[in-house]
Amino acid sequence: MNLKNFYSVNAIFGEGTIEHLQKIEKNHIAILMGGKSQQSVVDAITDKFDKLGKEWRIVGNIKREPHMEDIEKPLKEVIDFKPDCILAIGGGSVMDSAKAIWIFYEYPNLKWDDVILPNPVPKLGNKAILIAIPTTSGTGSETSSCAVVVDKKKMEKKLIISQNILPTLAILDTQLACTMPKHVAANSGMDAFTHALESATSNMNNSIVQRISLVTLLDIFKYLPTSINGAKDSKEFKEAREKIHIASYLAGIAINNAGTGLAHIFDQVGPKLNIPHGLTCAILLPYTIEFTEEHPFYLELAKVLGYKEEKGYARFLAQKIIELNKSVGIPPSFSEMGIGEKEYLEAMKEDIETSINSGGLQFAAKVPTYEDAEKFMLKAYYGK
């Protein structure tokens, strides 16, 4: 018998589920949030905490993909406050930061090098629980065992991966998804799309992951354009935002059990050129699919989308993704974003040199050589 573990975080979802926070039996709550867009949500939560006699403190605001030094100030606040609950309200950067803070709060003697992949993370929860409330729909960090931080000295992303950093509880209040700006919704939605497709074709995939991914991908194809371009007060817009919020969560479950692929592995051009992660993945994905070329899941998805042939399906699928990108305002190449050729080529070279030796390649459906990676990275710049 081939036994496989399947991991999923405890979650509550639906409109208004943020009210569940009143039932949490914790009384000393540290709040980590994103920018000003989340302030009204945080105010509503803290008003209820005040009425319930709970102590709380906002320990920090995370406004970008977390750099290692961004963790230092909120960590000091957490250590001083001594919470029994860490509450992360925001996008993936906030939730990833909260995971790192949770580790170092529970184990103050640990250093970054002690927990960065491939090093393990000890069991958490002795001092506090972690509750994640996503306000964007893409990273799936609320249900993943991964945290991404940027090493500023090298401008490289570093990974912490351990089932021990899974949040204790995820609350998916679909109302919160309706507040995202269009560009954030587009980038994060395509991040979720990339998660679903890459996990389904990872060498770690299984039948459960592939079923989750297929439903997720079809929902994103169907609902993402309306979630960006629909009339904000319309029933269709609200439904689309809700569907993508749930799709992000499902895609997070998929990557938590099967990992990602080439668009994520070779995304180091993002931090080097200050390109948002989801946007980087969205542009890279069609070209990494064309490189991978043959995979049974590509064929299955292509046929569901109407493709009738047994060959050429990877190119068909890549084109469908380019069309989806265009429908939500994402260009087909980095050059069309206005990224200069010289700076891209320099960042690309560093990216390939770093990524080609990445441990993540062991999960890729097809492993590229340096020359292979150079070809699809150049296509991603020039669009051909």
From TrEMBL:
<feature type="domain" description="Alcohol dehydrogenase iron-type/glycerol dehydrogenase GldA">
    <location>
        <begin position="11"/>
        <end position="174"/>
    </location>
</feature>
<dbReference type="GO" id="GO:0046872">
    <property type="term" value="F:metal ion binding"/>
</dbReference>
<dbReference type="InterPro" id="IPR056798">
    <property type="entry name" value="ADH_Fe_C"/>
</dbReference>
<keyword id="KW-0560">Oxidoreductase</keyword>
<feature type="domain" description="Fe-containing alcohol dehydrogenase-like C-terminal">
    <location>
        <begin position="186"/>
        <end position="347"/>
    </location>
</feature>
<dbReference type="InterPro" id="IPR039697">
    <property type="entry name" value="Alcohol_dehydrogenase_Fe"/>
</dbReference>
<dbReference type="InterPro" id="IPR018211">
    <property type="entry name" value="ADH_Fe_CS"/>
</dbReference>
<dbReference type="InterPro" id="IPR034802">
    <property type="entry name" value="NADPH_BDH"/>
</dbReference>
<dbReference type="Pfam" id="PF00465">
    <property type="entry name" value="Fe-ADH"/>
</dbReference>
<dbReference type="Pfam" id="PF25137">
    <property type="entry name" value="ADH_Fe_C"/>
</dbReference>
<dbReference type="GO" id="GO:0004022">
    <property type="term" value="F:alcohol dehydrogenase (NAD+) activity"/>
</dbReference>
<dbReference type="InterPro" id="IPR001670">
    <property type="entry name" value="ADH_Fe/GldA"/>
</dbReference>
<protein>
    <submittedName>
        <fullName>Alcohol dehydrogenase, class IV</fullName>
    </submittedName>
</protein>
